[in-house]
Amino acid sequence: MAAPTERIILGIDPGTTVMGYGVLMVEQGQARLLDAGAIRFTAADDHTLRLRAIFSQTLAIIERHHPDELAIEAQFFGKNVQSMLKLGRAQGVAIAAALHREIAVVEYAPKRVKQSITGNGNASKEQVAAMLLSILGLTALPASTDATDAVAVAVCHHFAGTGRSLGTTKRGGGGKGGWGAFLRSNPDRVI
């Protein structure tokens, strides 16, 4: 079966205060940015209300753009355990929204994203943004660094799917162990 010539990738940079998103259209191997932004959640809201908002906002983006795949930034290890738990919940809720719409999900570590975009896993946000401008042929990116991070995750996923990358790391793709494979193998476990 031939690979699709067109696909839409939703990239998400999860967070309980701000969630960045970027939507790419890939046609004949070329990616172009369809939409990007950052959704801010009310700090005064209870954590569970923010999680509900993440789920509903992710579904709204999915309904608007009908992505084929979700690429999401995976957690990185930090010193604050409570922050890590909250970030993990935000990531899980965004993944659940994609699974609810039967969209394949792939996670990428922050270093993997930077490596793919710039060739350097320790690149700065400014270096990543400059490369995204060049890769996507844009004159400007969204003002929010969360949105730019989400676009980077989507571009990383595009590169992983085409075998292209400015870096050399070969981790992070869905393959046999991704969420899409889990969903196909376990349809009874998804509500």
Please characterize this protein's 3D structure.
This protein has helices at residues 47-65, 81-100, 110-118, 125-136, 145-162, 179-185; strands at residues 6-13, 18-27, 30-40, 69-73, 104-108. The chain starts with 5 loop residues before the first strand and ends in a 6-residue tail after the last helix. The chain is built from six helices and five strands. With 191 residues, it is α/β, with parallel strands linked by helices. The chain has a single domain, classed as Ribonuclease H-like superfamily/Ribonuclease H (Nucleotidyltransferase, domain 5, 2-Layer Sandwich). A hairpin with a 2-residue loop joins strand 2 and strand 3. The chain has a five-stranded mixed β-sheet. The chain is globular and about 40 Å long.
List descriptors.
191 residues; alpha/beta; Nucleotidyltransferase, domain 5; 5-stranded mixed beta sheet; 5 strands; 45% helix
Task: Outline the biggest β-sheet.
Answer: 5 strands, mixed
Q: What is the second-level CATH architecture?
A: 2-Layer Sandwich
Beta-strand share of residues: 15-25%
How much is the average pLDDT?
Answer: 85
Order of helices and strands: EEEHEHEHHHH
Residue stretches low in confidence (pLDDT < 50, at least 5 long) are 163-177
User: Given the C-alpha coordinates, what overall shape results?
Assistant: globular
What would the CATH topology be? Answer: Nucleotidyltransferase, domain 5
Overall number of structural domains: 1
Within CATH, the superfamily carries the name Ribonuclease H-like superfamily/Ribonuclease H
Number of helices: 6
Number of strands: 5
From the alpha-carbon coordinates, what is the Rg to the nearest angstrom? 16 Å
> Span between N and C termini?
29 Å
